[in-house]
Amino acid sequence: MSATTQAARVVLGALILLSPTQALAQELDGPSSLAYPGPAWSPYIAGALIGVLSWLTFYFSSKPIGASSAYANIAGLLGKIVAPRKVDKLVYYQEKKPRLTWSLMLLAGIFIGSFLAAWTGNEITGWWLPPLWEARFGEGTLLLRLLAAFAGGVLMAFGARLAGGCTSGHGISGTLQLAVGSWVAIICFFVSGIIVAMMLYRI
Amino acid sequence: MITIIEKNSSAGDGFRQLILGLIFGIAFGFLLQKGGVAKYHILMGVLLLEDFTVIKVMMTAVLVGMIGIYVMHRMGMVEFHLTHTRYGANIIGGLIFGSGFGLSGYCPGTNAAAIGQGNYDGFAVIAGLLAGSWLFAEASGRMKDTVQTWGDRGKLTLPELLELGRGTVTVLTAIILVVLLVALELLTPR
Min CA distance, B165 vs chain A (Å)? Predict the structure, then answer.
């Protein structure tokens, strides 16, 4: 089979899978995310530059971009302050000793870089409740939002450690190296993500 | 060829590596925000199948990254950094991760970017990420010999799975990504 026919098949399959779900989503009630501002730059430019950035991290640091493991690292460092002997007993921290790493600095940099981007583009938000959330759940739902955010964080950290990475580590760095597990993981991220988002906003 | 490997240092990575990490992080955060993926409604938008910005950013990053890393690897300039394919853990962990993604509306990297642009609800996500990481570490002993072993295929790659050359799979994947990106651009409002 030629490359183009194979590609055409995949696209056709994806579209067949996507269109009824999309039609269904539009029929259901709920605020539309499209009512709010889009990205400052073309997503293709931002994406391409992230691709170039991955070349640089591979070449200069011999590391793939990833975000979630840094949180495990911070949790371990905090654990070492509170209960150092406990940390030493945990299998995960025996294999990955909590310490100041490249990944931790990468995560710190994301806060700064995003602030600079939002600041230069006049996009600083400064709110606690996302407008889309407010449109769906009402104004006085901050506590509910924080609970959902916290629970989401717990699930993401646990899931990412089990799966071996997050949307960056698997979704970009792993897939671009053609790792099978990364393609499996990113599909699973979106499958359950779509289900939960639809339950929150469309049902 | 530049290799900086300080894996066995108990103090952590070296100074140069730490500074590089910070610089790359700043660039990454800047691009995430400019690409719109620090925004709650854009991240929820993709999960609601309305706004495909996230997919466009990711697919373009993978397309460009994949081709560059392939070429650089062929030239002996970089090494691969592959993780194990563990079908059980990839699927179960992936589904758990995704439900958290849908619930919070951010993922670990974009959450940091969201806070950077002033979405303070991201602080609750950070608290959750730390708690979840600790929970995982607590459970890591039990999972190591169970879930983590289910369907462990080592550092399996698509070329090995499909029994094709890496060059062929890279070209094929690139074609598929380009066709999907064109289709998304033509068929979706954003």
Answer: 12
Q: Please report the ipTM that was assigned to this predicted complex.
A: 0.94
Rounded Cα distance, A36 and A117, in Å: 18
Q: What is the pLDDT of residues A40-95, one digit of tens each?
A: 999 999 999 999 999 999 999 999 999 999 999 999 999 999 999 999 999 999 99
Single pTM value for the model:
0.92
The three-state (H, E, C) secondary structure of A110-172, written as one string: HHHHHHHHHHHCCCCCCECCCHHHHHHHCCCCHHHHHHHHHHHHHHHHHHHHHHCCCCCHHHH
Q: Minimal Cα–Cα distance from B54 to chain A, Å?
A: 8
Are the beta carbons of A149 and B44 closer than 8 angstroms? no
Continuous segment of H or E residues that includes residue B168: helix B166-187
DSSP B83: P
**Which residue type sits at A93?**
Y
Q: Bridge-partner residues for B12, per DSSP?
A: A100
Classified as helix, coil or strand, B157 is: strand
